[in-house]
Amino acid sequence: MIDQLLIGAVILGALILFVWGRWRYDLVAMFALLVAAVLGLIPANEVFSGFGNAAVITVAAVLIISHALWHSGTVDALAMLLQRADRGLATQMILLTGITAVCSAFVSNTGTMAIMIPIALHLTRNGRSHASTVLMPMAFGSLLGGTISLIGTPTNILIAEIRHDVIGEAYRMFDFAPVGLSITVIGLVFMWLTSRWLVPISGQQRQQQAAYGMGEYLTELWVPQGSSSIDTTLYEFENKLPDRFVVLAIKRGKELITPPRPYQRIKAEDILIVKSTTETLQRLLDITQLELNAEEALAERFLISDEIHVVEGVVGPNSRLIGRSAADLRLRHRFGVNVLGVAREGQGLQSTLANIRFKPGDVLLLHGDAEILADLFRRFGCYPLARRSLRLGASKRMLTPLLFFFVAIVTSALGWVSVPVAFTAAAGAMVVTNIIPLRELYENIDWPIVVLLAATLPLGSALERTGAAQTLAQGVLWLGQGAPLAVALALLLLLTIALSNVVNNAATAVLMAPIALNMAAGLGVSADPFLMTVALGAALPFILPIGHQANILVMGPGGYKFSDYWRLGFPLTLLVVVTAVPLILWFWPPTG
């Protein structure tokens, strides 16, 4: 009993830290694993066994393959077919959500959304619809689509491996499809019919760059002969006031220096293109004796050339920018990149841009060299919101990665080779054929997810070993005592969905699977309907944006508030619960 209380306390503490979000989830999971090991809840030879688990290897391989399909432009080609379709609101909704769901069955949700969000923004900028009307349904559609195949989401891979450990046989590639495809179709149709009333549309939700008001604050200043600013560096000039303003470019005769470096010295008769508020501009004129050179409001074209671009991007859920500011990162000094604006929940932030600490879902307006911006997005885990993605030099060999991917699916579906072997081989083939450059191989594995899985798998085993899973299972069964089996499944599904909305879905699957197995054992029925219930519930966190990376990615571009998600997410969750339980019992009977 003491061991049950101890493992319960460790997992509860981890869940609290997951929800708090102060530390990244992989660090929390590793810390919980070490605490459990020190307390003797996990045998010494099993503490790091998760790193050798087949499910973890498979997830890493699938992430590599997903990146290869993204890198080669395969999914782009499918998405860009939308450009030829009718752009009515109903058609947009059906095509965008439908294609997103289909792609997410085989490509990671995050990778699919990174490609589809710019397409959605482009299609909805025709004045007849708002991006917010389609972005949330697209995110939810990507979650639904992930339930269709074994590789659609890491939770399916984990549940398949857990079944192998318990029963001796893992789920095959499309064993999830009967339930997953049915729920996906039901969910998509529901969103097509109701999202116009359930998805909030705020007047603050941005059209392109509206949240920043960029043009309103661009001003040309002329440096007259005798000015005290002559021969000062830009760094010195920009620190003349405590208020933040930025020199975005310098016109010197016919030369346009953009973006200028901090050590660039100002010369007489230079024209400085400055971004600042009206109040800051007036104070700057007062102390520098510079003169307004032209209209106060300038068009973007003064800052854009063949090499220099102004690009929007969204901060990814695992971005290295999170919790840091432009000043911390010295973006301008190190990369020559200006931060022109930051929008959060669809509204521009008016505080000092250099000191704003970035959050997942923030939309940044960046100005700089096109190649440097492309590298910056890759390096820091951001996603461009331009019509074309910034994958300079990306391979266009679309058929080769598709062939490798298809062979992996077929061979594993037919049982010729195991899923881990098939997809690891496919990932290796893509590296050998240079579809993915070797230098990008390890950069594009989502290591926090891998570490999270490897750390939580032994915790799940400890939950089972100490008897805590059995105790929790008995508690759930007690709540549904005397009721039909469907009630027990519904309770398990609700509990799993609730946990997945606040905890990473892979961790949810690992923690809930032992409880599901003990519930099945307690009722003396097959474990399959209970494992399928956990797989489905862990993959569908609709109510909170923190439930999944796809939800976070659309938060900034869609202008959603934290509280907006439940309006569509809650009824969609209820629909899933009501329809999924009978579907699971139909396709996976308890006596099977």
TrEMBL record:
Pfam families: CitMHS, TrkA_C. It comes from the Bacteria. Keywords: Membrane, Repeat, Transmembrane, Transmembrane helix, Transport. It is a multi-pass membrane protein. Its main location: membrane. The chain crosses the membrane at residues 5-21, 27-44, 51-70, 90-123, 135-159, 179-199, 398-415, 445-463, 475-499, 506-524, 530-547, 568-588. One of its GO terms (molecular function) is monoatomic cation transmembrane transporter activity. It is found in: Membrane. One of its GO terms (biological process) is potassium ion transport. Residues 206-290, 297-383 form the RCK C-terminal domain. The keyword Repeat applies. One of its GO terms (cellular component) is plasma membrane. This is Di-and tricarboxylate transporter.
